[in-house]
Design a protein that fits this description.
Oligomer: single chain
Number of helices: 3
Order of helices and strands: HHH
Largest sheet: none
Distance between the termini: 136 Å
Low-confidence stretches: 127-143
Helix content: over 70%
Number of domains: 1
Strand content: under 5%
Radius of gyration: 54 Å
Mean pLDDT: 81
Shape: rod-shaped
């Protein structure tokens, strides 16, 4: 009786070994192919890693060089920014002056024109021997010269038109 279980165990062991042999063979073939692949690509991978290391070193040198040049250019950039701010302030000042001149300019020119017209009118009357105040109503009444208000308006319109 003890021989039967022993024989059954041996048969089962033989079947198990027979079933595992193709699996082991396939595993060995896979490992050989992986080894061949690693042997073939190993040197290429080493070269690629060396090139990556060289590229990294170059980039580090370029970065350091750019850092140095940036540090040297910083005062120039700061100066340019200061000049830009100064020019911006000048622009605002000129804008303010332009606004003031455009506001006061026509009034100044109208006043100057009225002064010149009055002066030329008084100069003509002064040459005839008349007093300045007495001939004003006579010239207006006779129609020789337009009233001063109309002269001012005409002078303003001529300056606004240009």
């Amino acid at each position: 009786m003890t021989e039967a279980p022993l024989i059954i165990g041996l048969v089962l062991l033989a079947v198990l070994v027979g079933a595992l042999l193709p699996v082991f063979y396939h595993a060995v073939q896979t490992l050989k192919s992986v080894k061949n692949f690693v042997d073939a690509t190993g040197p290429r991978l080493e070269r690629a890693l060396e090139e990556v290391a060289e590229t990294t070193a170059r980039l580090n040198r370029i970065g350091a060089s750019l850092q140095e040049q940036g540090d040297r250019l910083k005062p120039l950039v700061d100066s340019a920014a200061g000049v830009g701010q100064t020019l911006q302030g000048l622009k605002q000042s000129l804008h303010s002056v332009g606004a003031v001149l455009s506001t006061l300019g026509p009034a100044f020119l109208a006043g100057l024109s009225a002064f010149m017209i009055k002066r030329s009118a008084s100069g003509k009357r002064g040459g005839d021997g008349e007093a300045e105040g007495s001939g004003e109503d006579d010239a207006t009444a006779s129609g020789d010269a337009p009233p001063p208000e109309e002269e001012l308006r005409a002078a303003e319109e001529s300056h606004h038109g240009h």
